Amino acid sequence: MSEPSASSSESGQQIPPGVMEALLRPSNVRPVSRSLASFSGGVTDVSMPEADFLLNKWDLLCPRCGSLILRTGVGKLVEKPSVQMEPATRSPTLIALLPSLPEPPALVSWWLVAPSPMEFENIGFSKSLSSGDGAQMKLLICAECDLGPLGWSEVGGSEFWLACSRVGYRA
């Protein structure tokens, strides 16, 4: 079977010039994101008030591939103790993309996503792991490029936590 020509299709209708080329061209355009560290006001600059809490002001993106992780206004800003999510040794590339979190119980800014993982646009989960207190957790990663951990959730839980410093912001 041959590819349709740019001038006609099987039904005899004319296809405008450039349409086939546009459809066959790969989409390499990725959204540009900013890291939390690039905002002078920190989490204050990336959150917006809603009733008695703060929500994410911009879409949250994967810091490596730019994939949309969470839409504006879905994540609730929460200060909560840090969580040990990774081994002590990390590659220099990972360190550049995902800032280290302080040792627990230091407070960290998190985006709380609830009540379902369906609130996310694009997220992946690791296998179950044991946390420091013995609870079972899963790590959140970018479903497109597998960068992570971006956050965590308890196995079977309805709360999903993204570290504010580990996602990009479409500002």
From TrEMBL:
It holds the Pfam family Mss4. One of its GO terms (cellular component) is membrane. The keyword Membrane does not apply. The keyword Transferase does not apply. One of its GO terms (molecular function) is zinc ion binding. It comes from the Eukaryota. Keywords: Guanine-nucleotide releasing factor, Protein transport, Transport. GO terms for biological process: post-Golgi vesicle-mediated transport; protein transport; small GTPase-mediated signal transduction. Coiled coil: none annotated. This is Mss4-like protein. It comes from Mycena maculata.
